[in-house]
Amino acid sequence: MLKNTSTLASLSRLDGQTMKTLWSFDDKFNGRFVCSDTTIVIANGKNLEVRSLSTGSLLWSLPVPEIDKIGLYGLILTRNMLIFSTSTGVVAVDLNSHQRVWSFEQGGFLSLSKNGVLHIAAVTYEGTDNKIFAFNLQ
Fold this sequence. Notes:
Layout: E1 2-5, E2 8-14, E3 21-27, E4 29-35, E5 39-44, E6 47-52, E7 58-63, E8 74-77, E9 81-86, E10 89-94, E11 100-104, E12 108-112, E13 117-122, E14 132-136
């Protein structure tokens, strides 16, 4: 659950049966997040944070200064990669090394097919040159 109050936002995990709060943090979360079985990735200020889903504790973070311009267009979490898109491009980060492994100089909205094809719906402000890119990640 994400709750925005003035400049801070609360990130909380609730028990699905009792609705009891398991953990909660207040910070500059921007509302975009993605979860796996064990982790949650969320934008916090100029960083992407990877947190434990069971405890909420910070596992590692990645500075992403581009978040400030417009925010995130998308986040995708796979077994071994975190893929995110900003107004300036798409970046893939290896979850084990925490290093950027590839990037593409066109931002946009992201989707990943069940066959491992990443689609980027490129965004332009003029609305005259919209494109869709596809990358086979397998």
